[in-house]
Structures are given as C-alpha cells and as structure tokens.
Design brief:
Blueprint (H helix, E strand, L loop, with lengths): L1 H13 L22 E6 L3 H10 L11 E7 L11 H12 L4 E3 L2 H5 L4 E4 L7 H10 L4 E3 L7 H13 L4 E2 L18 E9 L8 H4 L2 H11 L3 E9 L3 E8 L4 E7 L7 E6 L3 E3 L7 H13 L6 H19 L4 E3 H13 L1
Parallel strand pairs: 1-2, 1-4, 2-3, 4-5, 5-6, 7-10
Antiparallel strand pairs: 7-11, 8-9, 8-13, 9-10, 11-12
Length: about 350
C-alpha cells in the first residue's frame, strides 16, 4: 500500500502538487472561526437550489450551523448541456426565497463570501470558475464532475496546491446511510449501480456514472490497480476494478430499464445491501464541516483515483475491454499537462 500511495503522490506532484497537495488539512484564516462562514455559489443547478434550501432553513439542526449561503453568480453556460430556461428560472426563484443574493460578477460574489461552491453542472468551465476563488484564497467545494477529463481534474488540484486552498469534491452517494459505516478492511468485493447518462464532451462515466463509482470507492476504499470495461451498449456500462489482495469491485451504469442508486457489499462475515439515496442533506453536513475545519472529508488522493478509474474504464472500452493500469493512466495524464 505504501508503494501505491507513493505513486499517487508522485502523480499529484507531476500535476504541480507537492506532497502537501494531498495533505489531510489546510490552515484556514482565524477569522473564519470567529463568525458565521458566508458561502457563495457559482452556477444555477439542482444542487445550488437544494443546498441553499437545506443550509438556509431557519429550522435547520445544529450540524448545519456555522455556514450560510449568501450570494450566487451564474455565468453563461454551455447550451449543449445547460438546463432549460424554465428550469433555470425555477432554480433562481427557489434560491432567492432562501435569502441568497443574485450578483452579476464573480468579483462581486467573492467580495461577499468566505468560501465558494462551484455548482455549474458542466465540468468544462470549472477550471476557469475555480481559479478566481483560489487566487482569492477561498476554500472551494467543486461539485461533480470536477472536470471533463482526468487532465482537467489534475489541473484543478494543482491550482489548489499552488494557492494553498482547501478543496473538496464528492457525490452525495458517498453519504448514503450505511455505506461509510462499512469496515473496508472486511470487504471482499462489491457491486454498485447508478444511472449513467452520457455527455460527449466528457469522459463517459464522469457525467453521471460518477455517482455509482463514488459509492463503489466508499465501500472498497482507494487502491484499485486495474480497470476492465466489460460491456458498453446503449443500455448500460459494466466496469470492473481490481484491487489488491484479489478484491474486485463492479459498477453498472444504467441507461435503460429501471434506474436508481444502490449496491451490494460482500464482506468476510456478511452480505450488505446499501441503503437508498434519500437526498443531499448528509453531503451538505460534510460540506459545512469542511468549510469550518479546512479538512476535506475525502482526500485528494482518493478523489484523483476515482477519476483515474473512470478514465481507465474509457480507455479500456476504446481498447476492446483489456485491463488498463490506473498508474499508467495517471502517468499519461500527468505528462499531458506538463508539456
């Protein structure tokens, strides 16, 4: 395992990240602990509306205290993946009702907030959107997908290291009730599933399959060595990852038939059905903890590996289903951004 961690740190370093780039925590300004942390949103989406409603609820419980959503900046989106005008109008109305101010520029928003959530549903503009926040020293939550491809993910994490800014990204599926309570050391194998709509501008599983892949990593942990794309059809993707000690994890991406999120975990003493997804609240609690402590609940190492897993699945598909090394995928991505 030491060798594996060393490689991931090397991959991060090659992207411009030193060892501190995957450190467990960052130092935050003392002023953040003396007041309610003001949060800003970039982008109108399902999540920006839902997160605002959860966080600014006057009846919220104590585990959401300490942060408040105060401002939103909505940059021009990409029409090929953007929401309809009717959807955007509904999101904006819902956000306004929570007391969030809609502003006309990133600069105006940054002057009002202590930390930022990147909620644009398209991964392509995330690098451009996150850069001003990082330059301003604002901790950032970057919603899925972090970027459109693995090289883009590495660039964003490299910026976080350059500007010494805490960064966190996760699907809400990581926080289904019983997933994080499973003892990873006892897991022999696992099977997870989620919808997996495709978007041609993104690596296949980045767009929506990330949910089920994140759930797979939640129970298996980091340390996958190789990935095989078993099947790709109009109806589904079937991908298997191979971990150390002969452990295997499989993800099914659904595009036909009944959809949903879930999975089964096989441990040394039990077979566990993962709980159903019940909403975003648990993720928002983790985002609040992150902004209050500066410690990402999911390490940069693991997040980068999750995206490398999905990039390896894409390359395996393109090569007819052969096993693809995650280390090789990371090395190639690292080299592509260092040229």
């Amino acid at each position: 395992m030491l060798k594996r961690r060393s490689f991931l740190k090397s991959a991060a370093a090659g992207a411009g990240l030193g060892l501190s780039g995957i450190a467990e925590s960052f130092a935050l300004p003392a002023a953040l602990f003396a007041k309610e942390i003001r949060l800003g949103l970039v982008g109108l989406s399902v999540h920006s509306a839902a997160f605002s409603q959860i966080l600014n609820d006057p009846a919220r419980q104590a585990d959401l205290n300490g942060c408040k959503m105060v401002a939103l900046y909505h940059p021009k989106g990409n029409p090929d993946v953007d929401f309809t005008p009717e959807q955007l109008t509904k999101f904006e109305a819902d956000i306004r009702q929570t007391g969030v101010k809609i502003v006309s520029s990133m600069k105006e928003m940054l002057n009002m907030v202590d930390a930022v959530l990147i909620e644009t549903n398209d991964g392509r503009p995330h690098l451009e959107e996150v850069l001003p926040a990082m330059k301003a020293g604002k901790p950032v939550f970057v919603d899925k997908p972090v970027a459109a491809d693995l090289a883009g993910v590495l660039r964003i994490y490299a910026l976080a290291e350059k500007y010494k800014v805490p960064i966190f990204s996760s699907s809400a599926l990581r926080y289904v009730d019983n997933a994080s309570k499973i003892n990873k050391a006892e897991v022999l194998s696992a099977f997870t599933y989620s919808p997996a709509a495709l978007e041609k501008s993104h690596t296949d599983l980045f767009w929506y399959g990330i949910h089920g892949v994140e759930l797979l990593y939640t129970v298996m942990g980091a340390g996958c060595k190789e990935v095989m794309h078993v099947q790709h059809t109009a109806e589904e993707d079937l991908v298997t990852g191979f971990w150390e000690k002969n452990r295997a994890g499989t993800f099914r991406g659904i595009r036909s038939g009944k959809g949903g999120f879930g999975g089964t975990v096989f441990t040394s003493g039990d077979i566990i059905t993962l709980d159903a997804f019940t909403g975003y609240r648990s993720l928002v609690v983790k985002i609040v903890e992150f902004f209050k402590t500066g410690k990402p609940p999911v390490s940069a190492e693991e997040t980068i590996e999750i995206y490398a897993f999905m990039e390896a699945a894409q390359q395996s598909k393109q090569q007819g289903g052969v096993k693809v090394s995650i280390e090789k995928v990371l090395t190639n991505a690292r080299n592509s951004i260092s040229k």
